[in-house]
Structure formats: structure tokens, C-alpha cells
Design a protein that fits this description.
- The protein has 19 helices and no strands.
- The protein has about 425 residues and is mainly α.
- It has one domain: Growth Hormone, Chain: A.
- The two termini are about 35 Å apart.
């Protein structure tokens, strides 16, 4: 408790809480179509491939929008960027409530839901911006725990859709966004680490640096796996085991809770044990669990496996974003948005591969196997990069360097 009080005193807790709430509600809206997929599929009699594509659209849209929002935040500030985004989301949800009546409308709405998915890099950078390097992992873990919005979506959207109709859920979503908007407006303060002296070229440099693409490969598995599976699980549980739409959401919630809560642990553990060490454990667990899940065991066993897998993915997300501000200390928002963008695009692959696997092989197994193989590739990339990282910008195992070492984003240690 004493250590946590020290952590809070080191930064600005109201901004951290506002960032968490902002990301939490945005995340809930981002995954709405996934949470309501069994209802939407029933309304329009969709094929497995159509279901997968519908679920993937918000993920792809959110990924594409992340980097521009991160760049915008460097110019107008992260707090202002968050307020602009939330205001736009409210308008988009009102549109969804009144205008979505066909499958094509659902796809268009998926693009608008992606606006909410763009919040990632800004939320984490805003929440952690007040904290020193030794607490960045925990601060980012707390802000990033806003992916618990998945829990809100899969738990509340199905019952609301059952009682009022699934399109009405968009209207409820518009109302809920008022809470994080007001909290952000009143309590959050722009952190002092904005880095206004950096040109656009400097901020975009992470796109052409090797480390950025290594982080992308890792995040495709940790976050891409989380968002992709979280969106597809309601459909998977409903189609594979024949459970009710509400029960499918509740089962998904069990897995999502694990991934969201352990993200904070991932940041905390990585500050002390090192992000690279944590990620090594994560990849071993994810690879093993996905291969076991591909055998499609009973509902109970499958649910437990998903809970473990989501816990590992959540740990991985916290671990990776302990490393981001160490590698890009002055342009964390842009780097985080870029990494989040590619990672989320990887998440769009999950429902697509699951839908195609089911449609053309009559089983979801090959979707899980494909994801496990991709995890193996990313794990190899991590281990190859580890030696160079620990010689340049991070300590052994992925711990923060001491204050006697200063790392420049385009150079090295001084």
C-alpha cells in the first residue's frame, strides 16, 4: 500500500483516472458489433464469412484511425484530442440509433465504431504522462485496463438488445459517453511531457525504425489477439456450443475480465521484472493454450482455456507498453498509436480467419492454429531483438535504465 501511495504521489491521479474511464467507455463502444454479432447475424442471416468480416470492420477502422489521432494529440494536446474524439463518438452513436437498418449499414457503422478504437495511444500516453520512468509501466497498465470496456459491452449489450432491439444499444452508448467526456473535461490536465519541440518528421520516425516494427509484431499477438478474440467469442460460443446470445456474452465476459485486470499486473511486474522477461512468459503460454484450444474441447474446458489465454494476453499488453515509453520517451503518444494501429489490424485477422475456417472447413480449429503459428513467429522476433535492445535503450530483461543513462530516440545511451 505504501508503494502504491508513493506511485500516486509521483504523478497526477485524476488524469490517470480520467484516462482509464475514457479508454474504458471507448473500448466498450468499439466492440459493440462483436458483442451484438449473434443478434445482427440472425437479423440478416449472415454466413460465417460475413460474420467474420462484419466483426473485423470496427477493428480495422479503429486501427487506421489510431495513428492520425496520436499525431493530432501532439499538436492540440492529448486531453483536447480525447475530448474531440468522444464528441465525435456521441454523434456517431446517434447516427447508429437512427440509421442502421441493413447489413451494409452495419458495415458502415463498423467504420464509425472504429473512432472509439482510436483512443488507445492517446489514453495511455495521457494517463502515464505525469509519471516518472520507473512508474510508467504501472501507470500505463492502469490506463490500459480500460480494455475492460469489453466486459461492459459483452455483459450489457446482449440483454439490452434482447429487450429493446440491437440498434437501440447504439443510443444507449451515446448517452454513456457523456460520463467520460465530463470527467475528462473537468479533472484531467495535460501532462508536461508533450514534446512540442519535435517536428512531424521526428514524430513519424518510429514508422521507419526497426524497433517499431518489432513492437508491431509482438502487439499483433498480444493486443490483436485480445481484441480479435474478444469480438469473436460471442459468435464462437453461440455457434460452436449452441448457448443463448446472453450466455455467450457472459462467457466472453469471464475471459475479458482476466485480460483486462491482469494488464495492470503486467505493467507492475514489468517495472520490476522487465518487460522482455514478462513477454517471454506470455508467448509460451499463448502458443500452448491456442494449440490446445484448437482441439475444441468441452464448453467448460474451452472457457477456462480462454480465461487463461486472455490473462496471458493482458499480461503481454501491459508488458509491451512498459517498454514503449522507454524506447520513445518524448513521442510516446505517436509511437503508442502507431504500434496500436498495427496491432489492432492484426486483431482484424482473427475474426476473418475464424469465419473463413468455419465456412470452408466446418470447424474453427484452423483459425486457432493459424493464430498460434503467428505467435511463434512473433516470439522468435522478440528473442532475436532482445540482445540488441539490452545493449542500447533498456536494461537487462527489459527493466528501465538508471537515471545515469539517457536514451535519445534516434541515437543511443549517453
Amino acid at each position: 500500500m505504501a508503494n502504491f501511495k508513493t506511485f500516486l504521489k509521483a504523478g497526477h491521479p485524476p488524469t490517470l483516472f480520467a484516462s482509464f474511464l475514457y479508454f474504458d467507455f471507448c473500448f466498450a463502444i468499439w466492440v459493440l458489433n462483436g458483442a451484438m454479432a449473434p443478434f445482427i447475424s440472425e437479423s440478416f442471416h449472415l454466413t460465417p464469412a460475413q460474420k467474420g468480416f462484419m466483426i473485423s470492420v470496427p477493428i480495422m477502422s479503429g486501427a487506421i484511425m489510431r495513428f492520425p489521432l496520436g499525431v493530432l494529440s501532439q499538436y492540440i494536446g492529448r486531453k483536447n484530442a480525447a475530448l474531440v474524439e468522444m464528441g465525435t463518438i456521441i454523434i456517431a452513436m446517434i447516427y447508429g440509433y437512427y440509421a442502421v437498418t441493413s447489413y451494409n449499414d452495419v458495415l458502415a457503422m463498423g467504420v464509425l465504431l472504429g473512432i472509439a478504437g482510436a483512443s488507445f495511444g492517446v489514453a495511455l500516453s495521457l494517463g502515464s504522462g505525469w509519471f516518472p520512468p520507473q512508474y510508467k509501466g504501472l501507470a500505463m497498465g492502469i490506463a490500459g485496463a480500460g480494455n475492460s470496456g469489453t466486459v461492459l459491452a459483452v455483459l450489457l449489450a446482449p440483454p439490452l438488445a434482447t429487450k429493446y432491439g440491437w440498434s437501440t444499444v447504439y443510443g444507449f452508448a451515446a448517452l454513456t459517453m457523456l460520463l467520460p467526456f465530463l470527467v475528462m473535461l473537468i479533472f484531467a490536465k495535460e501532462p508536461p511531457d508533450r514534446g512540442d519541440e519535435h517536428s512531424l518528421k521526428d514524430m513519424l520516425s518510429c514508422l521507419v525504425q526497426k524497433d517499431g516494427w518489432v513492437f508491431n509484431a509482438i502487439y499483433i499477438i498480444t493486443f490483436g489477439g485480445f481484441i480479435g478474440l474478444a469480438n469473436f467469442l460471442p459468435t464462437f460460443f453461440h455457434d460452436q456450443f449452441g448457448v443463448t446470445k446472453i450466455a455467450a456474452g457472459q462467457l466472453t465476459m469471464l475471459a475479458a475480465v482476466m485480460g483486462s485486470g491482469i494488464r495492470i499486473v503486467g505493467g507492475y511486474v514489468s517495472d520490476r521484472w522487465g518487460g522482455i522477461n514478462s513477454l517471454t512468459l506470455v508467448f509460451v503460454l499463448v502458443i500452448v493454450l491456442m494449440f490446445i484450444t484448437s482441439s475444441l474441447p468441452s464448453l467448460t474446458v474451452t472457457t477456462i482455456l480462454f480465461m487463461l489465454a486472455f490473462g496471458a494476453l493482458g499480461l503481454g499488453n501491459g508488458s509491451l507498453f512498459q517498454l514503449v515509453p522507454l524506447r520513445w520517451p518524448k513521442t510516446t503518444a505517436v509511437a503508442g498509436s502507431m504500434i496500436g494501429e498495427i496491432g489492432a489490424l492484426g486483431g482484424a485477422f482473427v475474426p476473418l480467419s475464424m469465419g473463413l475456417s468455419k465456412q470452408y472447413t466446418s470447424t474453427f480449429a484452423y483459425g486457432f492454429i493459424t493464430f498460434a503459428v503467428l505467435a511463434c513467429i512473433a516470439f522468435i522476433i522478440l528473442k532475436v531483438s532482445e540482445r540488441r535492445w539490452t545493449r542500447t535503450w533498456v536494461g537487462k530483461g527489459g527493466r528501465a535504465l538508471t537515471e545515469t543513462h539517457v536514451y535519445t530516440e534516434t541515437g543511443g545511451n549517453h
